[in-house]
Amino acid sequence: MVIPNEIGKKIAVPPATPIFIGKKKVDETVVRAITYNAENVEVLEVKPEELPVHSKGIIWLDIIGLHGVEVVKKIGEAYSIHPLVIEDVLNTSQRVKLEDYEDYVFVVIKVFTFDNGLEVDQLSLILKEDVLITFRERDYDFIDAVLKRVIAGGRGGADYLMYTILDAVVDSYFKILLEFSESIDGLEDEIFSRFTMETSGKLHELKRELNRFKMAIYPVRDVLSFLARYDHKLVDADNRIYFRDVHDHAIRIIETSEYLRDLAMSLRELYLSNLSNRLNEIMKLLTIISTIFIPITFITGVYGMNFRYMPELEWKYGYYAVLTVMSVVALMMLIYFKKKGWV
Amino acid sequence: MVIPNEIGKKIAVPPATPIFIGKKKVDETVVRAITYNAENVEVLEVKPEELPVHSKGIIWLDIIGLHGVEVVKKIGEAYSIHPLVIEDVLNTSQRVKLEDYEDYVFVVIKVFTFDNGLEVDQLSLILKEDVLITFRERDYDFIDAVLKRVIAGGRGGADYLMYTILDAVVDSYFKILLEFSESIDGLEDEIFSRFTMETSGKLHELKRELNRFKMAIYPVRDVLSFLARYDHKLVDADNRIYFRDVHDHAIRIIETSEYLRDLAMSLRELYLSNLSNRLNEIMKLLTIISTIFIPITFITGVYGMNFRYMPELEWKYGYYAVLTVMSVVALMMLIYFKKKGWV
Amino acid sequence: MVIPNEIGKKIAVPPATPIFIGKKKVDETVVRAITYNAENVEVLEVKPEELPVHSKGIIWLDIIGLHGVEVVKKIGEAYSIHPLVIEDVLNTSQRVKLEDYEDYVFVVIKVFTFDNGLEVDQLSLILKEDVLITFRERDYDFIDAVLKRVIAGGRGGADYLMYTILDAVVDSYFKILLEFSESIDGLEDEIFSRFTMETSGKLHELKRELNRFKMAIYPVRDVLSFLARYDHKLVDADNRIYFRDVHDHAIRIIETSEYLRDLAMSLRELYLSNLSNRLNEIMKLLTIISTIFIPITFITGVYGMNFRYMPELEWKYGYYAVLTVMSVVALMMLIYFKKKGWV
Amino acid sequence: MVIPNEIGKKIAVPPATPIFIGKKKVDETVVRAITYNAENVEVLEVKPEELPVHSKGIIWLDIIGLHGVEVVKKIGEAYSIHPLVIEDVLNTSQRVKLEDYEDYVFVVIKVFTFDNGLEVDQLSLILKEDVLITFRERDYDFIDAVLKRVIAGGRGGADYLMYTILDAVVDSYFKILLEFSESIDGLEDEIFSRFTMETSGKLHELKRELNRFKMAIYPVRDVLSFLARYDHKLVDADNRIYFRDVHDHAIRIIETSEYLRDLAMSLRELYLSNLSNRLNEIMKLLTIISTIFIPITFITGVYGMNFRYMPELEWKYGYYAVLTVMSVVALMMLIYFKKKGWV
Amino acid sequence: MVIPNEIGKKIAVPPATPIFIGKKKVDETVVRAITYNAENVEVLEVKPEELPVHSKGIIWLDIIGLHGVEVVKKIGEAYSIHPLVIEDVLNTSQRVKLEDYEDYVFVVIKVFTFDNGLEVDQLSLILKEDVLITFRERDYDFIDAVLKRVIAGGRGGADYLMYTILDAVVDSYFKILLEFSESIDGLEDEIFSRFTMETSGKLHELKRELNRFKMAIYPVRDVLSFLARYDHKLVDADNRIYFRDVHDHAIRIIETSEYLRDLAMSLRELYLSNLSNRLNEIMKLLTIISTIFIPITFITGVYGMNFRYMPELEWKYGYYAVLTVMSVVALMMLIYFKKKGWV
Fold it and tell me: Are strands D58-64 and D30-36 parallel, antiparallel or unpaired?
């Protein structure tokens, strides 16, 4: 299916109804609360009833597994998030976007993994004053790395925390680009040597994946540009430079993916012209064989006729003469093809 | 016909003349008046003479069947709508658009259904202070659902009512996208396995429908962006967030349809290269058969000649020798093709 | 000729020299003066010497036939029109455009007719305070209709008169769209059934005409957008809504023509893939015939050889045995092709 | 060479070094000084030492032949032109552009001639208060015409003089468009009737020339738009309308060249589909001949076999029977092809 | 590899970590300090500990070899450069860009060399008050030329120095364009005469390189436009005209590379149509040979049959009659092909 079937669930349902749309990717929904200030860090697994709403430092609420609709709803209520936002968090076929509400910013971004085939998850972030909430479909190494750095002491405000996560996500895109780049290299080799009908299918597949990837990364630029450019009360002026840096990475990814798309297009053309070349080769062989043998076969036909009066048949060296004529004809043909550069 | 023939009716007619352009899709024009406030709801089928112009709450006037030109005209007069607007309401080949008049907003939007082939209806909405008028060509489930919710108590202003209807229309587009997506999946399978000349026609049909769909959904974005962004006296500031949400859905639909169009284009390329591949296969077979048999048939021709002096013919094992030679030639050809990877 | 040869006449001539560039489409240049106010209408055919410059109502000066260079020049002088404008009026290869002079507005627009092949005329309008001058190459039904409505009493200012004419021109484009749409339908049928080399030429012709049409209608949007949006002293604020309506029609025409262009492009692709399909069919037939007969013809060749010692030739049922073997080979080939789905 | 080799001369040279880059197109560099006011005109050939810097009227300095680097440098000094401008004047591979310096305007434009193949020269203009300097690579008719008009009395300021020259250049582009249009007409005829491998090369050549032309005319629009729109002290407000007129011509040229490019593209497609059509024709002929003769040749093979017991061979009318059978087979094949519309 | 593998190193590393990403292109990292004012110049090779931070004139710090991470870090600290900037300096897969920090401007640009294949290096420049720092991967002739000019007395501020370097880089792009242009000329010749399967690969390679080049030069325009247009305290108003000049060169390079890309595209089409043409030639030959010999071979077959009663066989001149018939048939076929223009 090119678009997820689950999207149908939302049709004819009242607006702002929280429904989980997507695949269950972890067993259970886990809510991890990290509270920290310059001195202390505390990492706890919490229940939806005991959410830490106020703290003397920064609260990072990390939700893993979005099929727990009730949990997500409770979090929405606890932090007074608009029901439309909660609906979007649960709908994993959401677009990448940033929505600026009065006292929080809502960001949706995609995470790609390349297990077998390109897989895509949705990561939502809500940035409030001193609070960052992250909703994600499964565990990622790079978020663990962020957590480790926080524990190790690399602390900043909620906005800086958001930056490090977005930076990690965008950096993970480079890995996807590398995968695409390898696929293209492989296809290029294939097309230059031993391409088959399947090569065409692989090219189609590649373009499809590149298109899906593109759809997810283009809006990332706008999200980051908003955070880097506009004077938002939730983003410290000194941190804007960091968002500008990620923004720059995003543009680099977009440009490279554009370059890869151009390459894929050029590969398709290469494939088509090599197909034509191969057809030419096949037809050349057929034509050479036919052009050499059809005329001399005709000669054998002539002397296979049963006319009573055919003087050549009586000649002592008639047979050898004909063999010689046939060799000469065949040779002339070969010389002709040699000249044309066909053999 | 790629564009409706009825469009010709409008040529050489004075401007602002109300003429119904389109197909009659219901038997009779029905005018349904829903009046409600926080406490009460009343649903009535009314005649054009007894339109509820003033009420203590919200009036939703729902007209089903646009061939009733007189009815529509009377409604236009009763609510002082500009004749140009009434002309547009009746012309179902109208573009999707929003027009901002001084004390009302006029919106035209398209509804798609997929019975057999893509069908498109026109839905016009006029939003006035505490009044919403909807003109449509036939009955839809999703508008009934809206009505049920209003009766059940989910009430708001006329602007919120308009939002719920637009939201339902845009959500219904996802269903169309799913249909397209299924067609593409089917065509993809076909092209990979047993495509015929008809596959090409189906691809053409698909692109045509996607283009028609695109033409109707692109301007929806602008309509909703207007309602979400501009500070309009008819749209409550608190409700603007809802229009922003539908706007977001519209963009998602546009992006997905763009993605589907790219896929359709890539399918066409896949089809063409598979056609070429198949031609190569056909020509390979012909070439193999010809290249093996033409030379050995020539040999049989040689020994079919009737020369009196052909020593080989007299040899005892001449026949077997020639059979052997022919087998060797055929085998060598086969080995050659094996090496080339053709057999 | 893809661009009119007469364009060469303008090269190396001083700027603002009035030269008629185009084809003579009516016998004589006629100047029709319609003067009217709320009560009276007067329609006169006038000579260039007796132009009605001042009147108590609205003056509509309608010039038919642009080869009367002297007449046009005199009108320019009488109403103090800039010589560059007069030059443009006479040059029928002008672009569609609006030029805003201090006390008049100059509009150039194209009128299409579809007699045999697409023909294009130029219509220029000059709107002054209470005066409208229209220059056109021949008579049109839709302008007669406007005149009839004026006589019948449907009067307004010069700006409203200009609107009705522009509205009529834009509505006439729908007819052209219908013609294109029919051509496309015809070509589609042709491509699906019995296309020939000429089909390709027709497609080329269609694209060419669509391009010419596009070139003329795209700038219409900007012309009308100017009249609808900007606060111009010559356009009454209440009439701006009418220009907005024509503007809307123009956009619809552009969108539809864009859709038709996409269809034409898709038809070209369909044509190419059907050509390939047909080649495949031809080659399949050749391959089937060859593959069945070449091997069994070889067998007949073997038993046509004249070796003295060929035991099979002496067998009683040798002939029938060989016939049987040949039938089996042919049958096996047929089964093979059946399996491949070729027969 | 697709780009001029001489461009290499500029690499690794200090900035603003005056070097002549281009081909010498006249024998000697000539400096013509035309000084005029409302009453008098004086045309002199001057030496670089005696340049007329001040005058009681307008000075037009016309330099023909850019290889005289020293002359150009001296003019630059005499009229205090920035060294970067002089560098650009001498580099004939310059882009078309307008540069606004404090007290002069520098314009670079291209002149095309169509002797055999498209040739391009560079024309630079510097407009100062009451002074116009034109640098050009060779003599042109249209500049002579301007000079004649100045002598004849058609005088204006330096800005008006500049306008008449730019107008003449832009008008000369129409001639180039006519040449392109004729090439396209010729190619269209060729493709419809007797195209060869060379046709493809001609199409490539045409596209290349159209691209070169496009590169030179697109920026002309911006140059003229600057002169027409911005309130520049060197351009009289009353003359701005003239620049607007040339601007309009430039847009017409761009639109027409765009249309020609579309045509050229469509011609390429036409060519490819006609190539395919021709291949189909060739293959049809081969298939018809093969399909008719291969089966009946097989029959002759059967009765050419030397089996002792072949009853048919002994029949009295066996030979005639077989001839009849073969005729029937051939006829049936012909009928089959007739039905398919191949013959 | 289409994108450098080393990019993977940055994934899962804390932001702003200085890591060298790229290939080591010189043996050792060298830091060259050029200090100068109107009277004196001093060129020294310095150690990272003894960087000249303050001077009575201009300091140009030139770092060659970016693998010396520690050296670069120390320079960053000495001139208080933001760690993100240092990170970017070391990452040679950076995009071309300009970043405006409060008291310095950071520019990344690419240098291309064409040894065998297109190679690309990264050049970073930091412009501070009276200081210019250049980080580069290896030695270039054109920077040596700049240094020589500085020593010879062509001195200006740090901004003018930056201009001369950027100007030299942009001028070096013209050389690359010349290389591309030569490749295209070569390919054009190849396609017109003796193209092979490899030609297709070369075309693919060319497009790939042109795309890489394009990716690096497009943003150069924006970088230079920033320096030319905005009123930056670090760029002297009088020098802005120089940046405008380089900006102009950059646009020329972009336009030319765009033109080359169009040519490359047109070459691909030419190649494909020549492939088709060649196939047509091959098939024509096959068809001619087959169409001439298949019918006359059939005739020999007829008279090779062994029927007892075949009157023609007994005729005295039967053999000659048949030879004549066959010659006539062959001749007629030849005349037919002559008429069709095939031979």
Answer: antiparallel
